[in-house]
Structure formats: structure tokens, C-alpha cells
Amino acid sequence: MTATLSGVLPADWREGRWLGRIDRGEGPTPVLLAGGTLFDLTARAASISGTIERRAFDPGGLESIAELDAEMPQLAEGTALLSPIDLQCIKAAGVTFAVSAIERVIEERARGDSAQAAAIRGRLEARVGQGIRSVVPGSPEAAQLKSALIEDGLWSQYLEVAIGPDAEVFTKSAVLSSVGHGAEIGVRSDSSWNNPEPEIVLVVNSRGEAVGATLGNDVNLRDFEGRSALLLGKAKDNTASCSIGPFIRLFDEHFGMDQVREETIELLIAGEDGYRLEGTNRMAEISRDPADIASQAMSEHQYPDGLVLFLGTLFAPTQDRDEPGRGFTHKLGDRVAISSPHLGTLVNTVTSSRDASPWTMGIAELMRNLASRGLAERI
């Protein structure tokens, strides 16, 4: 997709420094957007991972790609905006909000059958809805709630990671497999109950330091994971099922972890059938602090090229789309827009993972591409 930045940057875009990747026809190029100018970073680092590890953020001395108009910033025609990450591992945290915990238990008990979900939801919310919102994960109060739920026969593995001491952290997608703004996102062709998950994605370097954030869509298959938690890999990791972008906003005096903790993420789904669904993910309601989740992700695992971490979502769609009681599921052609005041807007269109554009640039292909451009030593 040709990159038009007028619709993807937030109102305060000139106050921030932004990392991204573009393709002008020769291959991925890491770029820095600062003060209204877009700079080519390849003179210092040929990857976003390398840029972050070497902290090559200073625009001084870099080649300018474009001076962007304050009112209607655009890139040159034919320039594609890619996912803003490359060699980082893509991790995700699940069940970090009380509502998402309840919905995961519903999926589990309904065994992936959306028709049973409404009745189960009512019973479960009546018993744990307020209790689960009021406890701190891993606290004595959480342990007491667990005991009470076990006695009632309502305990679940999802509640364990919701209020227990250990966060759920899993690998969302393979290195280099994420898609960016404007790309198609993929849903497995054999899924009949699925939804987007609008999230903030934390960007962490190899030393465990959070250096920035962006937006993400952790596409989720409720029927697969509902049948068995052991199907998490099939539910989460499919072609084009991980969208990240539009840019990484670097932490500075204008935007940092405190803003991440308070950010509100809006979701709008517009179907070709005229269907519309709006949702909100309020980070202020997260059950686990983002810094704690990142610390758990790296507590006994090194990531020499850094990692990005989906922080989970409050959004759990229950609005019916077709038949009463069937809830929401995607249809091909749905336009999914995820936005927040400080991170911009990420837009994708739904297709099937089977029909999505094939993922062809893995690590070996990226190395070959950079070598052909004389950039391999700068990775």
C-alpha cells in the first residue's frame, strides 16, 4: 500500500520521534520521523532492531527522505509502509484484563461454540464479575478468590493467569512475519468465531528496557482456543495474523510508560455488509502493570535483538452480528481501524490466512537483500 501519513499519525506527531520501515522498491529501509522530516537510517543501522540496540535516534547527519507538510504529510507515491519491527521476537501477554479473563473462561466452557456463550457469560459474570476486578494478581486476596471459585466449581486455567502470580506470555508470531498499516490481516479459513484484539505493543531492547510503543492487532480465533488451550498456536500464529504499526513512538519527555498506562485505544470495524462495531481498550483498567509483564517475559530468557510485547486488551466483542446469541465474528472485507491519541491509527482489511499475500521475506531473504544493497554489515 502506498503510504499516506495524514490518516495514520496522531495530532501531536511533530512532538515525537518515530521509527518505521518503508520500501521504495529495493527492500525494507528503517526510517526516523522527527520534527517533520523523514530520515533514512541505513547509514547507521540497516534494521530497526539494530537502530534500537545502538540508540541511533539522533537525526543529525542523516539523509533526508522527505520534508512532510504539517497539514497533510505524505510519502512519495509507490512507497510502501511496512510493519515497524524486524528482528525482534514477537511476544504477547494474554488475560491481562478482567473482562478478557471472563471471556476466555466462556470460550473454554462453551468449547468454542458461540451459541452457548451468552448463557455462560451471564452466570459467570454474576459470580466473579466484580470480584475479579478488585484483586491484585498474586495477592492474598486473589488467593482467597481462587479458593472460593474452586469450591464453586468455577475455577479455570484462564483465571489462574488472570489473578495468579504468573502472567501468560506466549510467542505471537515468527520473526519478520508481522504486517503493517494498510496490509491485509489473515483469519484462518476454517475459523467460524474470531475477532480482532486492539492492543498497545511495547518495544523492549535486549537489556530489558522499554524504549517505545506502537499499536497492534492480535487477531484471535475464539473457536480454536475455546476448544482447547493447547490450540493457542493455531489460534494465534497464522499468515498475516499479526499486525503492528504504523510507527514506533520512542519514549521521551512527551510520551513514556506513564502515558502507555493511561492510553485509550479505540476500535472500529466496518463490514462490507454495512455492519459496524466500535470498541475501547482502556489501559488504565489493565490488571498487571506493563513493566511487570515485560519483566516476566525476560526473567529467564534473553532476546539479543530485543522483543515487542502485546499487552493484552479489554475489548471482548459480544455484540451479535447475524443471528441473536451468535456474537461477533469477522467477515472477509472487514475494515479494522485501531487508533489512540498518542500512537496514531493502524488500519487493515480482513482476508483469510490462506488467501493473504504470502510471507516470503524471512531472515535469510532479508540478509540476502541487505547484502545486495551493501548493508549486511550494518544490520
Walkthrough of the structure:
The chain has 379 residues and is of the alpha+beta class. 24% of the residues lie in helices and 27% in strands. The protein contains ten helices and 18 strands. The chain has helices at residues 48-53, 98-110, 117-134, 140-151, 157-163, 222-227, 232-236, 257-262, 290-297, 363-372; strands at 17-23, 28-34, 37-40, 63-67, 80-82, 89-94, 168-173, 184-187, 194-195, 198-204, 210-218, 220-221, 242-250, 264-270, 276-282, 307-310, 335-340, 344-352. The strands form three sheets. Strands 1, 2, 3, 4, 5, 6, 7, 10, 11, 13 and 16 form an eleven-stranded mixed beta sheet that branches. Strands 8-18-17-14-15 form a five-stranded mixed beta sheet, with no helix packed on it. Strands 9-12 form a two-stranded antiparallel sheet. A hairpin with a 2-residue loop joins β2 and β3 (37-40). α2 runs antiparallel to α3 and α2 (98-110) packs antiparallel against α5 (157-163). The protein is globular, with a radius of gyration of 21 Å. The model has no long low-confidence stretch (mean pLDDT 90).
